[in-house]
Amino acid sequence: MAPILEVKDLTKAYTHGLLRRRRTFSLSASFTVSEPQIVGVMGPNGSGKTTLFELLSGSNVPTSGRVLCAGQDVHRVKYRERDRLVIHYHQSYQVRRVKKTVPNLMLERARSDRPLVHVFDEPQFSTQDGYVGFMLGFFARLRAEGRVVFLCLHPCEPFHVDIMRDACERYLFVKDGQVAELPSYPSLLGHPGVREYLGVLADA
Questions:
Q1: Domain residues for 46?
Q2: Are the beta carbons of 148 and 39 closer than 8 angstroms?
Q3: 50 three-class SS
Q4: Listing from the earlier edge strand, what are the strands of the sheet with 22-33?
């Protein structure tokens, strides 16, 4: 059986200039999520997190590499059906639109009828109305149903760190377009740059 998600030699390069093209930013990632999990994602602003999520969901076109969801190439699936494989919720739970680059007739049908991978890109949490508990329960339910959940937070409060530590089983740290895999919260804190990024929250 194919892994739920395979990111194989994925790159995205942005360039600027008409006559002399120069690279302004690039992202690279390779990792596999074989089984249902909640994966925490951290990284400074502008590091490439949202670009990564757009590539996973097929709303952005990679420069090279592939994203396979249950063995199916997300970028070869019909645009309206890509969210049956990977769905990307941005901040206030808005679903990202897909950038169309090839005729839909040239693409294949999704082999799943509902999302296998759910990406939550800096969801808005409030501690005042019990919404945090509701969402954490939702993430756990998705995992129990065999899904993969990516939870990306930009920690600015101690409870954000608590959520990442307690809810997530493994982590990705994104910095300067490089995606590092960390198998546990202690290994996340031990990665160069993470403590600097978290500041005093690392010891909260």
A1: 5-203
A2: yes
A3: helix
A4: 72-73, 64-69, 5-16, 22-33, 178-182, 170-175, 38-42, 148-152, 117-121, 86-90, 94-95
The amino acid sitting at 200 is V
CA dist., res. 176 & res. 159, Å (int): 26
CATH of the domain at 92: 3.40.50.300
User: For the whole prediction, is pTM greater than 0.85?
Assistant: yes
Cα separation, 159 vs 58, in Å, equals 31
Q: How many domains does the chain have?
A: 1
Percent composition of the chain: helix, strand, coil (DSSP 3-state, to 5): 30, 35, 40
Dihedrals phi, psi of 149, to nearest 5 degrees? -120, 125
Query: Whole-angstrom Cα distance, residue 56 to residue 89?
Result: 12
pLDDT for 72-108, tens place per residue?
A: 999 999 999 999 999 999 875 555 566 677 788 889 9
Nearest of 96, 94, 85, 97 to residue 148 by alpha carbon: 85
Cβ–Cβ < 8 Å for 85, 117: yes
pLDDT digits (tens, 9 = 90+) for 15-29: 887 777 788 899 999
Contact (CB, 8 A) for 137 and 168: no
